[in-house]
Write a structure and sequence with these properties.
Order of helices and strands: HHHHHHEEEEEE
Distance between the termini: 61 Å
Shape: elongated
Helix content: 55-70%
Largest sheet: 3 strands, antiparallel
Number of helices: 6
Strand order of the largest sheet: 1-4-5
Radius of gyration: 42 Å
Structural class: alpha+beta
Strand content: 5-15%
Number of strands: 6
Length: 215
């Protein structure tokens, strides 16, 4: 719909421009024609006085009763009405797309939060159950289940962890917080420890991994 509105607007603007040029040209021609007619009437004034009244009336009746200025004004009014209507439609389209863009930015993370809310529910249930049990194994299993669930949720949204441990240091995805002697020759220039995991959303890095590099 947006393409159609813009195309109509450009079409109307171009036609309005052409019409104005034609109107100006036609008006100039009319002025010239009236000037020539006036000169011609002055030269033939005597002959015009001798023309019979009946013939003069007959000639007047044969001339169509059309006013070119009125016709042009009518066309201008029609084009102006179309222009006003199209501008109103374009303004409504602009306001609507602006609101849609604002809503998109405002609620961009809605789907992600919908996926995280069930995990929060699991945490609340785990906290409640932990107050009633002394079995450490059950508590550990509960934490692992919640971790796996939230990990699965973010992966469904396109978020993937970066694989950094024992990999060559990469400045495009990692941040070296410390450099220590490498435990072996083959670990020089590689990640010895990962202090904070890095993540990417689709192909974009959203958090650099904080690592310790061997040297």
């Amino acid at each position: 719909m947006s393409t159609a509105i813009i195309a109509d607007f450009l079409y109307l603007a171009e036609n309005l421009k052409t019409f104005c040029l034609k109107f100006a040209q036609r008006f100039m021609n009319m002025e010239q024609s009236q000037s020539n007619k006036a000169n011609k009437e002055d030269l033939n004034a005597d002959n015009s006085e001798q023309m019979p009244i009946e013939e003069e009336n007959k000639g007047t009746e044969d001339v169509p009763n059309t006013d070119p200025i009125a016709e042009l004004e009518k066309q201008v009014s029609e084009w102006n009405d179309k222009y006003i209507r199209l501008m109103a439609e374009f303004d409504n389209f602009r306001k609507r797309t602006k609101k849609e863009k604002e809503d998109l930015l405002k609620y961009a993370g809605e789907e992600i939060w919908k996926g995280i809310l069930p995990v929060i529910d699991d945490f609340e249930r785990a906290i409640k159950d932990n107050n009633q049990t002394q079995d450490i194994t059950v508590i550990k299993q509960g934490f692992e289940l919640i971790y796996n669930k939230i990990n699965h949720t973010i992966q469904q949204k396109g978020i993937q962890p970066l694989i950094c441990l024992h990999q060559p240091f990469d400045v495009d995805t990692m941040e070296a917080v410390a450099r220590v002697p490498a435990p072996s020759e083959d670990m020089k220039g590689k990640v010895i420890d990962e202090l904070e995991k890095g993540y990417k959303l689709q192909d974009r890095i959203i958090r650099f991994a904080k690592v310790v590099v061997g040297e």
